[in-house]
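Troubleshooting log. The previous structure file for this entry was overwritten by mistake, so regenerating from the original sequence record. Sequence copied from the archived sheet and checked twice against the printout by T.R.
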Amino acid sequence: QVQLVESGGGLVQAGASLRLSCAASARTFRNGAMGWFRQAPGKEREFVAAISWSGSVTYYAESVKGRFTISRDDAKNTVYVLMNSLKPEDTAVYYCAATSRTYNWKYQSSYDYWGQGTQVTVSS
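Regenerated output below.
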């Protein structure tokens, strides 16, 4: 069973930056991707970003494009998301997930493993 552990969340002011990390207990899949999702209070969980295991392909939600950057470190089995110019509407619990699929990375149902989440709060 693969475990994913997120870290790096916290309370920041609008305009600040945070970098979230997701450490996997082992290399999850030879193919597929790692993704980040978030869930704000009273809202459904939504896609944030995804990166292929090759690192050559990335996807971003329109709401974070240009502000967030997803990356990975193979040697550490870790995926990151650098969040710049944070806004109050970015406040949510952020989850990382792993999938063996090579498509539909924007959908929660595509993912096989999930972390427990890390809280990000952006004050205005």
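The chain has a mean pLDDT of 93. Archived copy saved in two places this time.
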